[in-house]
Write a structure and sequence with these properties.
With about 525 residues, the chain is an alpha/beta fold. About 50% of the residues lie in helices and about 15% in strands.
């Protein structure tokens, strides 16, 4: 059997033939084909505003794949792929800069690698669609987008923090309901399918070829809208308070810890008199806020990630104080604890501890996904504790863990997510939590030390929100929400990443089909 696919690749690399370009491209004069170059900067510009950052524009996520896909279809294979890789590198750099993450070796290597992965759907479309009939050809790009988004969460330490189109659509609740079935990969598939369909129309296909895409999108939006309209969360609610320590005491503690150049090991080894007063001041402020909110009617109180920062020798005392407060106030209390240890290389732990109204510790969770390049904690085992309470099944993870759908797929009614972000990224990171809430069918409460705190119900509605940087007033460091105590079991709960695996399988099958089938221009 002649390997026509290999021959076409060789021709594209040498520039001796353009036979595997779409007919619309081969029919145009060279001067006209040069007009494809505006597509690349325009598509790249649109992509900058669809990266899961603070400047996202939802419609940009639907625009950039159309433009970049058009560019690759009108380009030779490998030059086009290289430019698409460069465009994704530019988007990654933009995301790092707008989010004020800061470059380091891990972030830089990750940006290059993720950009390469994100190029694969464009490359697959460019190679395979000329060899496939219209219907299967229309599935190459969307299946590739969904498959790559899934692979990013499997093979990289970045989860959905970067590279997920679903997070750019967090405010479109009718569309977002699809993730309760497919996981976040469903949104990427829909965006990719729309881009593939628009390109077929751009190439001169009849409008009838857009019927399938239109029908799918309308069905998803109508079903999502019907779920929101006719099946709202039906449950009693519980008052939950998220409290963050007053900025005065946290700033004083930060200044104290900054004196130790070799921290966190230096903090752990420091004399108690040098660090304990500032640490205790923060703890006392949080305990006072807990008393205040319990008196106001809160039944569950959540502190942020690393709310309590303590030396390993003092950890037991800090937890004991929280247990006494939970018992005296009669609340479920979730505390975030940063433990400073002298043991290298982690020099400590990042924990979330849930205490019941009797003062009993119900579970201790250790962060499973430290932020690559900046957090050196030893990861936890990834087992998410779920406890039964009068207010439903309560589960806990910490901040960045919520960016990993597989970790979040637990049967719970309520997910507590103590978090610690920063000004430039806090709102964007909290917005992404809406996707997790819908996927898992549970309410999600994210209390952020330096960012935006928010509570969501199982359909992604914002129940309450508070911006740490919006005001200096002490009473605005608290978020209060009335949260449903019963979640729902979603399809995604039951089938997991089946949709993503189907996309991977579909892409593999289409690759085999294209490899054994000669290109027939008439099919296009």
């Amino acid at each position: 059997m002649t390997n026509d696919l290999t021959n076409d690749l060789t021709n594209d690399m040498t520039g001796t033939a353009v036979q595997n370009l779409p007919p619309s491209a081969t029919a145009r004069p060279a001067r006209s084909r040069r007009r494809i170059w505006p597509l690349l900067p325009l598509g790249t510009l649109a992509m900058l505003f669809a990266v899961g950052g603070r400047w996202d524009i939802a419609v940009a996520a639907w625009v950039f794949p159309v433009l970049l896909l058009r560019f690759t279809r009108l380009s030779r294979v490998w030059p086009g792929a290289l430019w698409i890789w460069a465009a994704h590198c530019a988007a990654a750099v933009f995301w790092v800069q707008e989010s004020a993450i800061g470059f380091n070796a891990v972030v830089s290597a990750g940006a290059l690698a993720l950009a390469a992965l994100q190029t694969l759907p464009f490359l697959a479309d460019r190679l395979l669609t000329p060899r496939l009939r219209p219907v299967p050809a229309s599935l190459v790009f969307p299946a590739g987008v969904a498959a790559v988004e899934f692979l990013i969460t499997v093979v990289s330490p970045f989860g959905t923090a970067y590279g997920s189109l679903a997070v750019t659509q967090h405010a479109d609740l009718p569309l977002l309901q699809v993730v309760a079935v497919t996981g976040p990969w469903g949104v990427g598939f829909l965006v990719g399918h729309a881009a593939s369909t628009v390109n077929r129309l751009w190439e001169g296909a009849s409008w009838r070829s857009a019927r399938a895409c239109t029908a799918v999108l309308l069905s998803v939006l109508l079903a999502g809208g019907a779920r929101l309209a006719f099946f709202p969360p039906q449950s009693t609610t519980v008052r939950i308070a998220g409290v963050t320590a007053d900025r005065t005491v946290t700033d004083a503690l930060d200044a104290t810890l900054a004196r130790f150049a070799d921290r966190p090991g230096g903090v752990a080894a420091a004399p108690a008199t040098a660090v304990r007063p500032a640490m205790t001041a923060v703890e006392d402020d949080l305990l006072a806020a807990t008393r205040r909110e319990a008196a106001a009617g809160a039944k569950i109180v959540i502190w942020p990630e690393e709310a309590v920062r303590t030396r390993e020798a003092d950890e037991a005392a800090a937890i004991a104080a929280a247990r006494r407060q939970a018992r005296s106030s009669g609340v479920y209390l979730e505390i975030g604890v940063r433990v400073y240890s002298t043991t290298a290389p982690a020099f400590g732990r990042d924990e979330a501890i849930l205490v019941d109204p009797r003062g009993t510790v119900l579970g201790t969770y250790q962060k499973a996904h430290p932020i690559p390049g900046s957090e050196k904690y030893t990861p936890g085992d990834g087992h998410v504790p779920v406890v039964r309470t009068p207010y439903g099944r309560i589960a806990s993870v910490i901040c960045y863990d919520a960016d990993f759908p597989a970790l979040m797929r637990v049967r719970a009614d309520m997910m507590l997510v103590p978090s610690h972000d920063w000004r430039q990224y806090g709102r964007a990171h909290t917005d992404k939590a809406a996707v997790s809430a819908v996927e898992g069918g549970h309410a999600l409460i994210r209390q952020d030390a330096e960012g935006v705190s928010a509570a969501y119900d199982a359909e992604g509605h914002v129940l309450a929100a508070s911006d740490y940087f919006a005001t200096d007033r002490r009473d605005r460091q608290t978020m209060v929400a009335y949260v449903p105590v019963r979640g729902v079991t979603t399809v995604y709960d039951r089938i997991g990443d089946t949709f993503a695996w189907l996309c991977l399988t579909t892409l593999a099958a289409l690759t085999v089909t294209a490899a054994v089938r000669p290109r027939r221009p008439a099919d296009r």
